[in-house]
Design goal:
The complex is a heterodimer of chains A (552) and B (375). By secondary structure, chain A is mainly α. Chain A contains 24 helices and 2 strands. In chain A, a hairpin with a 2-residue loop joins strand 1 (323-326) and strand 2 (329-334). Chain A is globular and about 65 Å long. The model of chain B has no long low-confidence stretch (mean pLDDT 90). Classes of the chains: A mainly alpha (552), B alpha+beta (375). The A-B interface holds A 1-5, 7, 448, 450-451, 453-461, 464, 469, 472-473 and B 9, 11, 13, 15, 51-53, 55, 57-59, 72-76, 78-80, 82-84, 86-90, 99-100, 103-104, 144, 147, 151.
């Protein structure tokens, strides 16, 4: 009797091989390069002095602590403001609910530094609100820079993540569970904490971890508004391109530490989601109630105020872009002068680069994501799992680490790519693919295997089945994931800041350069273009995905 | 063209777990053949081996004289109907049905003609240009059937096709399926765990348990003379009682507690005193009031169901039994009554003590006939 346990190699074996090679070359090899750089000094000798330097000098080691502190504070704040927001949104028929939803999504996906920049202009040393309060009311609101500023900006930017996650969980709570709870004498606030939050615990946890990782890896906000409060991702960048010409070995060592920390968080998250995963599915979803009386008014006030404050920075930037300005000062009157200057300062090239690189990397991302999703869902194996894990790792790695890793790996022959558009596209693909992979995987899991079997038994080849049946059925998931990838590509800062040069500058980088040079009108113009671009993309996304169960 | 399916020494394992150890089965040309068994018995696994979606770890599968072990699923010329219908949601009903034909590079005019013919056959022609999500479950199932049949397959495979439908539609659809199968005359292998559904549609049934075929036969054979105790309890309801077989003056008797009754249809090889397991269906226990011959039993409860009345009783030794009597016009026997039970010796089945074999004459099990023929 012949016992066959091995499957015949086919097209997918080749595809697996390709991805193993791809990630080995463009992810593992660069990361290995960083590791090597961190322990081999310029003289070619092995040393751990860079690590001892980091951990022995509080000036450096404190950055890790700072990052943890501010990320935890941000996570707590987003939960605190996001959960009530979501609760009112799902359980009550709020007026203009759709607007609230769209606005929060727009806030969440804005470019990483726009919030920080705009808040500085509002509440900073010479901010509009600060000046107004000081001059007319004599109130000094204190400094927005540092811990408080990062917290404010990031909490307002990231609470929509909690909102979206919690909406999904709240919607899946079956009304009969609430009735059963009321039947047993548990109502009101007690019921909210014991039943509603209890049932949503896995989601709260998932949302908290996503917010934490985003906050931890965030680069743009602390860079602008952090000032003396030095966080980890910024420190990597400072060491790499710092004032003193940069210390590559030390930057590499910090990057290695960053990789370990984020990997730890990543596996913690994987473990937590598998551990706290119970599925609830509502047969009788909770009917939305009419918000009545004073409470109803307060609910509206809370939700609209929150959305308005969160959205304010983007509106304010657009407003400022039409103001007259002179370097760091905004003047009276309105004109298109900032835009005219932007056109002179590479606006055309920035937009063109952004679009070319965006579309290029997006095309690669879509093809890769479909193939990887198929491998993971339909060809589950050790190899597929490895590919999946590798593809997800960059999701939480600080972008500057990936930027530095790519420079170290491809700064010299045989693969000298530094300074080219290719290396920027590579960074974008590696960093922004996880969005699309996740939504493609989720969609594919919903498609029963028997649909493909039906096609094969009707005489279609594996490839034809894949292209004619599987991919079209995945398309909604792919498109929604791809738009999110697109938005994050367009707003990419942390890896681009390491990899860009004048030739392949992007919109985000142009805006950042203008800010860092203190050219506020120009910065506002670039930021406004960027904001409009991302907003339009997101509005398309919301129209395409129709449902509100989006994966951020 | 229909085929006969011969399966020899089939073996299936997932990793180290052996699901089907060694299975032999002959399915005749044009018959409606059902694999019936509890979940996990290997029936779907076997069907998917025939379809080519499961690898075959051992043995040979033949369509007529063609070995199909290594043939691609798409080349086996099989029509398959899935439990969840597996309708392509991105294509209209018509495109779904035409899909298999276009893969076979049939000219468009011919495709249209065949598609129309089969859409009509299953009565969904008026929905031809709708998207599948606008069809009901029953309509989707009809489309799935048309899609499977339109390619003129050699074999039609159906994997629990009715289990997602509601009870009423299930009964309606099984008639539809049976009629269409008869009119097309195609060899059909049908998988279900619903014994009533199996009896309603099948020419022959294979009852499976633990990856082993227990009994192959017509619905009547299987119900009336089940090959072993498992089949007897899986098909319909049965009271399982412990008793003895005694031979007195060359006449065999069943002995159950103090009750004895002659049984004349024991297979010769089993004649001899031994412990046996008696399987009596509820309708085969006849209740008699008052003293007299029979097994003494006390009525615990009764349920009036119109046509019949169910009685739940216990015997002297505490064994619980169940009986179905045609409802009579006079009153129901009250709880606590002591009555006598007679066994319908024509219908009762007797098994060896371990239940592994029926010891009566008249068991028709094709799996044994087949093994004997092949020697």
């Amino acid at each position: 009797m012949v016992v066959k346990t091995r499957k015949k190699p086919d097209v997918w074996t080749t595809v697996s091989g390709f991805f193993l090679l791809f990630f080995a070359l463009f992810l593992l090899y660069p990361l290995f390069g960083i590791l090597k750089e961190s322990i081999i000094n310029p003289g070619g000798e092995f040393t751990i002095s860079e690590f001892t330097k980091f951990f022995s000098q509080p000036y450096y080691s404190k950055t890790i602590l700072n990052s943890f502190k501010v990320s935890i504070a941000i996570t707590a704040a987003t939960l605190l403001i996001g959960i009530p927001f979501s609760y009112f949104y799902t359980f009550y028929r709020l007026k203009g609910a759709k607007t609230l939803f769209v606005v929060s999504i727009l806030c969440c996906m804005s470019a990483p530094f726009i919030g920080a920049y705009s808040w500085i202009l509002l509440l900073g040393r010479s901010g509009v609100i600060t000046q107004f309060l000081k001059n007319s009311l004599g109130i000094n609101i204190g400094s927005i820079y540092g811990f408080g500023g990062i917290l404010l900006v990031q909490a307002l930017k990231l609470f929509p993540l909690v909102f979206v996650y919690m909406n999904g969980a709240f919607k899946n709570i079956d009304n009969s569970l609430l009735e059963a709870s009321a039947n047993m004498g548990c109502t009101g606030v007690k019921r909210f904490f014991r039943i509603i939050l209890g049932l949503s615990m896995p989601t709260i946890l998932a949302a908290a971890l996503v917010v934490f990782m985003r906050a931890f890896a965030d680069f743009g906000t602390p860079l602008l508004i952090g000032e003396g409060y030095r966080t980890f991702p910024v420190e990597i960048y400072n060491q790499y391109l710092g004032e003193g010409g940069g210390n590559h070995n030390f930057a590499a060592a910090i990057s290695v530490i960053a990789i370990f920390v984020t990997a730890l968080v990543f596996f913690l998250q994987k473990y937590a989601t598998s551990k706290f995963n119970f599925s609830i599915n509502a047969l009788h979803p909770v009917e939305k109630k009419e918000p009545a009386g004073v409470i109803g008014v307060l609910m509206h006030v809370y939700c609209y105020l929150l959305a308005a404050v969160a959205f304010l920075p983007q509106l304010y930037i657009i407003y400022l872009s039409f103001r007259n300005s002179n370097q760091g000062v905004f003047l009276e009157g309105y004109s298109l002068a900032s835009y005219e200057m932007a056109v002179k300062k590479l606006l055309g090239r920035s937009v063109k680069n952004t679009i070319v690189m965006g579309i290029g990397s997006l095309a690669i991302i879509i093809v890769f994501a479909i193939l990887i999703a198929y491998l993971v869902v339909r060809r589950a194996s050790f190899v597929s799992n490895t590919i999946d894990t590798m593809s997800m790792l960059p999701y939480i790695m600080p972008g500057s680490v990936i930027g530095i890793a790519l420079v170290i790996a491809f700064g010299k022959k045989p693969l000298a790519l530094t300074g080219t558009m290719i290396i920027m596209i590579l960074a974008l693909v590696i960093r922004r693919m996880p969005y699309t992979i996740r939504s493609a995987t989720a969609t594919l899991m919903q498609i029963p295997m028997s649909i493909e079997e039906a096609s094969i038994s009707l005489g279609a080849s594996k490839m034809k089945t894949f292209s004619r049946i599987t991919v079209p059925m995945m398309s909604s998931g792919i498109i929604s994931g791809a738009i999110l990838s697109w938005v994050s590509i367009v707003t990419e800062l942390s890896s681009a800041i390491i990899l860009y040069n004048n030739r392949n500058i992007t919109l985000t980088m142009s805006a950042y350069v203008a800010i860092s040079r203190g050219n506020y009108g120009l910065a506002a113009a670039f930021s406004a273009v960027l904001t409009v671009l991302t907003s339009v993309s997101l509005l398309i996304y919301l129209a395409v995905s129709k449902s509100e169960d989006i994966q951020l | 063209m229909s085929v006969r399916i011969n399966i020899k020494n089939a073996r299936k394992q997932f990793g180290e777990v052996v699901v089907i150890p060694d299975l032999n089965l002959n399915i005749r040309e044009g018959e409606f053949f059902t694999l019936l068994g509890p979940s996990g018995c290997g029936k779907t696994t076997l069907l998917r081996m025939i379809a080519g979606f499961n690898s075959i770890e051992g043995g040979q599968f033949y369509f007529n004289d063609t070995l199909i072990n290594h043939m691609d699923p798409g080349k086996r010329n099989i029509g398959m109907v899935f439990q969840n219908y597996a309708i392509f949601p991105n294509m209209t009903v018509r495109k779904n049905v035409a899909y298999g034909l276009t893969n076979r590079k049939i000219p468009p005019a011919e495709v249209k003609k065949l598609t129309d013919e089969f859409l009509g056959l299953v009565h969904v022609d008026q929905y031809a240009d709708r998207m599948p999500d606008r069809l009901s479950g029953g309509q989707q199932q009809r489309v799935a059937l048309a899609r499977a049949l339109v390619i003129h397959p050699d074999v039609l495979l159906m994997d629990e096709p009715l289990s997602n439908l509601d009870a009423k539609l299930r009964v309606e659809m099984r008639t539809v399926i049976k009629n269409i199968q008869k009119s097309v005359g195609i060899t059909t292998v049908y998988v279900t765990h619903d014994q009533e559904e199996a009896m309603a549609v099948s020419d022959r049934i294979a009852v499976m348990n633990g990856g082993v075929i227990q009994h192959v036969g017509t619905p009547k054979d299987i119900y009336q003379r089940p090959a072993n105790l498992f089949v007897s309890t899986f098909i319909g309801r049965s009271n399982v009682l412990k008793g003895e077989l005694m031979v007195k003056d060359e006449i065999p008797y069943i002995k159950l507690n103090s009750f004895e009754v002659p049984m004349l249809n024991i297979r010769p090889e089993y004649l001899g005193n031994q412990k046996i397991t008696i399987s009596v269906r509820p309708e085969e226990l006849l209740m008699q009031k008052g003293e007299g011959d029979g097994i003494k039993a006390t009525v615990d409860d009764s349920v009036f169901l119109g046509l019949n009345t169910h009685y739940f009783m216990h015997l002297e030794d505490g064994t619980e039994v169940e009986s179905i009597q045609e409802s009579t016009i006079d009153s129901i026997i009250p709880n606590g009554s002591v009555i006598r039970l007679m066994i319908n010796t024509q219908k009762v089945n007797l098994f060896t003590e371990d239940g592994s074999a029926n010891i009566l004459i008249g068991v028709q099990n094709d799996i044994e006939t087949q093994t004997r023929e092949e020697g």
